[in-house]
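Re: the 227-residue chain
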Amino acid sequence: MGEEAPKATEGALVTNLPILYSFRRCPYAMRARMAIAVSGRRVRLREVLLRDKPAEMIAASPKGTVPVLIVGDNVIDESLAVMDWALAKNDPEGWLAPDDGEDGADLIAACDGDFKHHLDRYKYATRYEDADPETHRAEGAKFLEALAARLGQRQHLCGAKRSRADIAIFPFVRQFRIADEAWFDEHAPASVRTWLKGLMGSELFASVMEKYPQWKETGEEVVFGGA
């Protein structure tokens, strides 16, 4: 599929398609949507607000986070698992088989672990007791250096082309930049800034950031994805 935008259509839906609960700005949901889009899979997307979660989503996944993918009787409520579900069917860009043979699993684990911990306390310091945003920014910046070490001799984290690791990680680095864009643009490693700018500017990312009506309010689904 490459850089083609996923198709979203209102009106008559294919009722046997999987259901995806998503929130546009959630980085976990972003990476899931990008994998679905590039794979050509189609789902019935239900846009939600995390402060007003629909009962149907909570019934399917009581932990109350997105994405939540319902495939028949099966519920997939981990974003990396949603990515793998999509790519297992079709992986046209070879995200699961990157150029240099490394899948970046170590970087994804670090992103979802320590980096996410520091990102939350940097970007949303007022939500955490005694959180010093500058301390957490400094700790988070260590992860940017780890990314820079991988990007020093390659365009993406696992080779010349984007891969599962790039798509899994970049929405969180994007959030880190949003917390203080001036600081990031001055202090983040140049290779990381270039990598992030490229992914943020891609047609694929733009296509999955389209705004949709809130499903709980309108009952309106869209068919998301497809070749």
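Strands lie at 19-22, 42-47, 68-71, 74-76, 222-225.
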